Amino acid sequence: MKNRPRHFRIIVICLLCSPAFAAPKAAPADRTAINQCLAHDKKGDGEACVGIVADPCIATVKSGASYNEAAKACATREFGVWNELLQQTMKGLKSSGGPDLAESQSNWLKSREAMCPLFDNIDPGMYLGGSEYCRLQETGRRYLILDKLLQAVSEH
What we know:
Elements: H1 6-17, H2 28-40, H3 54-61, H4 67-95, H5 102-115, H6 130-155
Helix pairs in contact: 3-4, 4-6
């Protein structure tokens, strides 16, 4: 971000520090489940692992009185893991001399935070977990693609 205008750097820092981007601390069991899934993913793209913690959790809370809030809690648990993985990958890209993704990451975060809250305004039965489930999906997929980039950068 050396060559970026000062106001751009301030915006990025504010976005990354805002409550919408704060992720819960990932539980060791959730982290293990996702890492094992990624290690044993037959397709090799990791897509099947996004939702591996939240989906079974949501299935168990579906019939409860406050099922939508419980589903959000399930999604938040998994989001914490994907967010940790994404942050580690971003650090890896930076330390390996990979491309500067500050602007790209800022744009992605703004997009995620503009889109995901829309899911809180639809019938909960259509998308259990609302914005929290959207965040886990978006963050998991972002990690997967940036991890591929890190692997490619690290090979050279």
